[in-house]
Amino acid sequence: MSASSAHNRQIDGRYVNRKMIDKTNGTTTVPGMQGQISSELTRAAFLSSPIAEKAVVCVKNEPWCSWSLSPTVTGETTWYAHLYFHGERLNRVDLAIGATNESQSWDDWTKENEMARKMVHDALLSENLGTPPYDYTWGKVFSVFDERRGGSCIIVDYEKK
Question: Partners of 155 in the beta sheet?
């Protein structure tokens, strides 16, 4: 078994990284993306990094600003990531898994498909972090289905409570 396959497996036929979120500090590794995202990442450092090169601003309402990163593809899996900053501070990271052959049309959207995505996210978190809740000194991690937004994602929230 190679070193990389020791950290990777498939859930529901999708590639996942067993070491995707470090529960000791919240550092996040998006499969297929070079580099890591941590609570220490400042907005300025993000903007000068390779991961920002193809990122697109989603919402800009200063001091809040969010970016959608360029999707990464690993095998049959596409990963989507969004970063949310408050001023210079990284506030949260949203992650979502998809299949490379998945339709991007709202005409093909169903709640059942999004709940299936949430189940994959839940399994990934269980594999990666153990049994919920995922509350840590640096923040928390959770899997959600947001009906208003029409999607499911994993949220890595760096707000210390």
Answer: 94, 142
Reading the block at residue 57, the tokens are 């601003």
How far, in Å, CA of 10 to CA of 18, rounded? 10
| Cα distance between residue 105 and residue 82, in whole Å | 19
pTM for the whole thing? 0.85
Residues 3 and 22: their CA atoms lie apart, in Å, by: 17
**Domains in the chain: boundaries:** 11-79+91-157
Q: How far is CA 75 from CA 2, 50, 62, 124, in A?
A: 17, 22, 37, 17
Query: What does the pLDDT profile of the chain (161 residues) look like in tens digits?
Result: 333 444 444 545 544 555 789 999 999 998 888 889 999 999 999 999 999 999 999 999 999 999 999 999 887 888 999 999 999 999 999 999 986 567 777 777 788 888 989 999 999 999 899 999 999 999 999 999 998 888 999 999 998 76
The rounded radius of gyration (Å) of the Cα atoms in the chain is 15
DSSP state of 131: S
123 C-beta neighbours (distance < 10 Å), count: 15
